[in-house]
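Subgroup meeting minutes
Present: P.N., E.W., G.H.
Scribe: E.W.

1. P.N. recapped why we're keeping a running log of single-chain structure predictions: easier to compare across weeks, and new members can see raw inputs and outputs side by side.
2. G.H. added today's entry (253 aa).
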Amino acid sequence: MEAVHFQKSLHKPGVWVIISTTFTAHNQEPVFMNPHHPPAASQAETLYSSQTFQVGLLSLKAGERRDHYPHLSITQAITQAQLFVIEGSLSLEKTTVTQGQRITANADQTLCLSNESSQPVLLLENLWGSNFNPMPLAEVTETRPWGSFTVLKDLPHYKLKQLAVNPGSRLSLQRHQKREEHWLVTAGYPEVTLDDQVIKLSPGEYIHIPRHSWHRISNPAENNAVVEIIELQLGDYFGEDDIERQQDDYGRS
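Output recorded in log:
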């Protein structure tokens, strides 16, 4: 019998996040496969990886089912997998996971992913583990006074960035009218302002930034390490001119 655990986001009332899903109905041992050669029906694209973290895109065709996710390998010990639904919806027994929601599996869990719709499902895949093949950022990195960002994907219905915030720096206090954002911390210990809250996050933790919400990322100087965040934008428009600033350390309007 499947056990699905729900938890309301601590960071914004009314936002539901799937924290973990454990499947015991199959009662089978994990299947050891090479993650670089997934089943033929699926399409996977790695966008960036370090030795311990990998981010990419995973698509499931209509009617496709993956009984053991993540697929394990002997050389790459995956300790945690997080999936964000970018497009479409997944079925998990009686549960449906739709755009903007996430699924998390820890080392002792496997997921059964099923696309029961007539349309493909696109997922943002984040994996923690060991012995990934480091892959540098392929796109052009743009510098800012607070650090830099790299656009990993820029399509009409979503945009994906990697942010790097220097110690002692912070972004402007800003909001957007045409997009929401999902932040996943991959390195460092940022402080995130979300409206009237200040939230401290650690690697592997996540926060949802709804449209119209005031927000900023700060990297306290005492951390003495760069904060790295994967940012998924969902909405109608992703231009840099959809930024309304309330306060900025660098005098930008």
